[in-house]
Amino acid sequence: MKQEELVLTTMQKNFGMITTKEAEELGIFRKTLVRMVTKKLIERVKRGLYVLPNCWGDEYYNLVYSSNYAIFSHATALYLLGFSERVPLSYDITVPFGYHASLQNNKDVSLYYVNKELFNLGKISVDSPQGKSIFVYDIERCLCDMIKDINNQDIEIIRYAFKTYISSSKKNFVKLREYAKKLNVEGEINKYIEILM
Question: What is the pTM of this model?
Answer without folding.
Answer: 0.77
